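Hi support team,

I've been running sequence recovery on a batch of backbones for a student project. Most finish fine, but this one hangs at about 90% for roughly twenty minutes before it completes. I'm not sure whether the input is malformed or the queue is just slow. I've pasted the structure tokens below so you can try to reproduce it. Let me know if you need the job ID as well.

Thanks,
M.K.
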């Protein structure tokens, strides 16, 4: 009799199908590429068929025929896990994927709030880019996620706008443009513009390219504290979403840009989440209103 596939193997197969690569699947699952490859290869040996064509990685007809059932198995396993967490007075674990900006500025405040209001729930914030978060939601890796300007096809009826903000220039307080209420982005691009390599880089670059197609940043800086220290010292300027205002140092000021580019951060539960998970999602997201986040400017 053929051996039964493990949940580890099934998760790997579904993740590779969603990501379109073994490396991408490894990122979704938080493991290494060899682990994913090994899980898929062992499943192929057990089933006696090839599940993915390589170069490029695409699901075979055999794989496509069983993917819906594999997704159903993972969804049922998630429901079972949720139920087991409540046995014996246990705590529930709720995982929410969030953009870097939200985690950077509000992680501590959000987790402290949820810890007070939902003491029987262990909440985890997982940072990711929009495409990663979409994959995590589809694969059931997280219970909910916050997406930036998502299309309606990605959202359910429970989706909630958590933050609405806009991109701003961040300059030193004695910068020649500091007295202006609003500045043209083209003027800011004449300065030494340095971008964060971890916060909205792609969106900010796209904004700059829309005004000046030849734009290239002076530097890319991963550490936000280092970037803000450079701006505070008057060495460079930068562009950040206005949600970052609470962490700007005293020597800097945000300034509105023309053209204005606004964005919405929208929370949505994972596809296939059961009723109790959706209720918990609504309660957790609804509580964010007390932080001045839900549905308003940051």
């Amino acid at each position: 009799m053929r051996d039964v596939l493990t949940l580890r193997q099934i998760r790997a197969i579904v993740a590779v199908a969603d990501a379109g690569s073994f490396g991408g699947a490894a990122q979704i699952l938080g493991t290494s590429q060899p682990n994913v490859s090994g899980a898929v290869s062992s499943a192929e040996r057990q089933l006696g068929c090839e599940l993915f064509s390589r170069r490029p990685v695409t699901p075979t007809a055999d794989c496509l025929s069983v993917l819906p059932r594999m997704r159903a198995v993972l969804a049922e396993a998630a429901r079972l896990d949720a139920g087991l967490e409540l046995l014996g007075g246990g705590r529930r674990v709720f995982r929410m994927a969030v953009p870097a900006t939200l985690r950077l500025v509000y992680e501590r405040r959000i987790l402290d709030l949820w810890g007070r209001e939902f003491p029987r729930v262990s909440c985890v914030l997982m940072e990711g880019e929009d495409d990663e978060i979409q994959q995590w939601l589809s694969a059931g890796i997280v219970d909910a996620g916050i997406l930036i300007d998502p299309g309606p096809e990605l959202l359910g009826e429970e989706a909630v706008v958590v933050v609405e903000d806009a991109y701003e220039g961040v300059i030193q307080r004695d910068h020649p443009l500091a007295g202006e209420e609003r500045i043209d982005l083209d003027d800011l691009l004449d300065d030494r513009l340095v971008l964060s390599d971890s916060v909205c880089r792609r969106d900010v670059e796209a904004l700059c390219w829309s005004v000046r197609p030849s734009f290239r940043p002076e530097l890319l800086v991963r550490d936000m504290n280092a970037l803000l220290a450079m701006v505070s010292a008057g060495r460079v300027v930068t562009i950040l979403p206005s949600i970052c205002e609470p962490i700007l140092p005293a020597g800097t000021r945000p300034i509105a840009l023309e053209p204005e580019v606004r964005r919405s951060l929208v929370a949505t539960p994972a596809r296939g989440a059961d009723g109790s998970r959706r209720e918990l999602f609504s309660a957790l997201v609804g509580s964010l209103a007390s932080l001045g986040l839900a549905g308003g400017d940051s």
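--
Follow-up from support: It reproduced on our side and the slowdown came from queue contention, not your input. The chain is about 45% helix and 20% strand. No action needed from you.
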